[in-house]
Amino acid sequence: MLISEYYNILGIPVNSSLEEIKRAYRKKARLYHPDINQSPDAIEMFIKVTEAYDFLMANHEKGDLDDKDYFRVVEEWRKYRQDRSRQRAQYYARSSYERFKNSKYYKSTRILNASSIIFNFAMAITVLIFTVFGYILKLRNPVPGEETLTLMSFLLLLTISLILLVVAIYSLKGYIETSKKHRKKQ
After folding, report:
1. Does residue 107 lie in a domain region?
2. Where is the domain boundary, 74, 102, 130?
3. Which DSSP string corresponds to the chain?
4. CA quadruple 13, 163, 156, 119: dihedral positive or negative?
5. What gap in Å lies between CA 91 and CA 162, rounded to an integer?
6. In terms of domains, do 96 and 121 share one?
7. pLDDT by residue for the chain (186 residues), tens digit each?
8. How many domains does the chain have?
9. Based on the domain organization, do 49 and 134 belong to the same domain?
10. In this structure, are 74 and 127 located in the same domain?
């Protein structure tokens, strides 16, 4: 199977990030889990989705390989990990959706969300702090002829840092609300 087919199974573009892969997997796993979806092909689709997720997580950085290396990677996947991935998927397909949702495997898809949101928030605060303190230091130790350039740079960086902070706050707020919903369901 080609790497693009694995992306198609998850319904995402080929250049998707790890976070997008995890998000797509959670949606598809919920959609096709036999405990929720009663259609006859739900188990097979659940297995395909899990296999696609496992392959893409293991080979995400290898997406830009040349043909020879790509086929070597795919062959190694088939030999060593494809059967294990299918067995894991069959096990989770036989278990209830609640048990699957509480498994370490499923929970690992949420870790990247929390860490990336917290990292983005910390970076936005850091950029804001460095912008303000950098401007204050520049005012105390001016370089002749750069006064207007310093003010323009400060305003540009301040605007960017405030935009980053607002986006980070909305992401953090959305993540906290989602976490609360998950806790209430349990």
Report:
1. no
2. 102
3. --HHHHHHHHT--TT--HHHHHHHHHHHHHHH-TTT--STTHHHHHHHHHHHHHHHHHHGGGTT--HHHHHHHHHHHHHHTHHHHHHHHHHHHHS-HHHHHTSHHHHHHHHHHHHHHHHHHHHHHHHHHHHHHHHHHHHHSPPTT-HHHHHHHHHHHHHHHHHHHHHHHHHHHHHHHHHHHHHHH-
4. negative
5. 47
6. no
7. 667 788 888 898 887 888 888 888 888 888 888 888 888 888 888 888 888 888 888 776 655 555 566 667 767 766 667 677 777 777 777 777 777 766 766 766 665 567 777 888 888 899 889 888 888 888 888 777 666 667 788 888 899 989 988 988 888 887 788 777 766 665
8. 2
9. no
10. no
Contacts of 56 (CB under 8 A, 6+ apart): 3, 6, 7, 10, 21
170 token code pair: 């909305």
Which CATH number characterizes residue 17's domain?
A: 1.10.287.110
Q: Which domain covers residue 78, as residue numbers?
A: 3-102
